[in-house]
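Per-residue structure
===
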Amino acid sequence: RPVTETEKDEPLVQAVVAAYQDVTGKEAVYDGVPGATDGTFLMSQKNIPVVVTGSGVREVPHQYDEWVDIDQLMETTRIYALAILRYLKGEI
């Protein structure tokens, strides 16, 4: 799969970063992730911007014993919801 990169000034990135900071009180970390997501197809085939973020330990996905902490899942859900609202309202 092709590598994806979304610029920091992309409105989607800004919405996710603002939501992350509001929910966690921490600065966002810009970093790559191992493995692949469906975002590679969205970016390479349709030029749709991609932000990969979520709960859990980044080396755990797609393992036979994959798991995520419920508190982290709830925090990520709040981040997604707030990011979506900010993006759709243009509050970035």
